Amino acid sequence: MTARRIRILTGEGPKLAAIRELIQRAFAEQDGRIDPPSSAGRLTLDDVRAQARPPGRVLVAEADGVPVGCLFLVPEGEVLHIGKLAVDPSARGRGHARALMIAAEDFARRDGYARLELQTRIELMENHALFRRLGYVETARAAHPGYDRATSITFTRNLNPER
Fold first, then answer.
1. Is 11 inside any structural domain?
2. What are phi and psi for residue 51, nearest 5 degrees?
3. Which of 10, 91, 95, 149 would staple 68 via disulfide (CB 3.0–4.6 Å)?
């Protein structure tokens, strides 16, 4: 078993390129499966660098020092948005996505966010199942510009049940 570590990526350094490549590898599997295509293929190194600077964050799962998964955290008021959850195809099935989502929840609780929110594509049923297992509930459906049908689902996890 390899040692997993979750850490916050800073806005500079050599791992930024590795994270960009990891996201693009992970999202490439969605080509031809989701419509419209993911924006992950257009993600630049500058995009990752900007996301890694506060107030945004990039959480990275490393196995033996190598990035195997990541997600973006984007604050908006009382909500912390999760984006670009990605696990390298060669590292799937080892709990990295779950560990990243739990770390995002810990981060959100520590910093006083009321809830976590994310969007996933309609077609990605396995993602819906993961998020439901982690306590997220579907709160909305939306269409990308130019589409007359729902293309994404918003999932929310309330961190303060009394609110």
1. yes
2. -65, -30
3. 91
pTM: 0.92
Apex 87 CA angle, 82 and 88, nearest 5? 150
Report which residue type is found at 26: A
Distance from C-alpha of 125 to C-alpha of 120, rounded to nearest angstrom: 9
SS3 state at 155: strand
CATH number for the domain spanning 51: value is 3.40.630.30
Q: What domain range includes position 145?
A: 4-158
pLDDT tens, residue by residue, 67-110:
999 999 999 999 999 999 999 999 998 999 999 999 999 999 99
Identify whether the C-beta of residue 137 lies closer than 8 Å to the C-beta of residue 127. Answer: no
Is 153 contained in some domain?
yes
C-beta of residue 11 within 8 angstroms of C-beta of residue 58: no
108 belongs to a structural domain: yes
Angle formed at CA 35 by CA 74 and CA 104, multiple of 5 degrees: 25
How far apart (Å, rounded) are the C-alpha atoms in residues 58 and 145? 27
Q: Is residue 16 part of a domain?
A: yes
Query: How many Å apart are CA 128 and CA 150, to the nearest integer?
Result: 15
